[in-house]
Amino acid sequence: MSLLKEFKDFALQGNVLDLAIAVVIGAAFNKIVTSLVENVIMPLIGLIFGEVDFAEKWSLMGIKYGLFIQSIIDFIIVAFALFIFIKIANTVMKKGEVEEEVDEQTVLLTEIRDTLREK
């Protein structure tokens, strides 16, 4: 019975739930990016090179390097989005740390001031 309780405590921790939510959102975001690349970007590239289905038709001896290029574009978009997200998250977290540090310093200085007044 203790093992079940430990598992329940583990599964309901904030970190595990946050991770599960992040995985679901990441999967949904991946679908959006894949659709963007397949249905918008690759047809535009196909128009530039004169082929409607760039990804499928660009192949050499059965090797579909057009699909590989599509996957690379997919990866670059996801990586860039993650980079921007992490950059914003780090900025927000640093602001919180600075505010917390200032609050801590203010409390300490107030305590020192009050102690000196008493003497």
From TrEMBL:
It is a multi-pass membrane protein. One of its GO terms (cellular component) is plasma membrane. The chain crosses the membrane at residues 12-29, 36-55, 67-86. Keywords: Cell membrane, Ion channel, Ion transport, Membrane, Transmembrane, Transmembrane helix, Transport. It is found in: Cell membrane; Membrane. It holds the Pfam family MscL. GO terms for molecular function: mechanosensitive monoatomic ion channel activity. It comes from the Bacteria. InterPro entries: MS_channel, MSC/AndL, MscL_channel. Belongs to the MscL family. Homopentamer. Channel that opens in response to stretch forces in the membrane lipid bilayer. May participate in the regulation of osmotic pressure changes within the cell. This is Large-conductance mechanosensitive channel. It comes from Mammaliicoccus vitulinus. The gene is mscL.
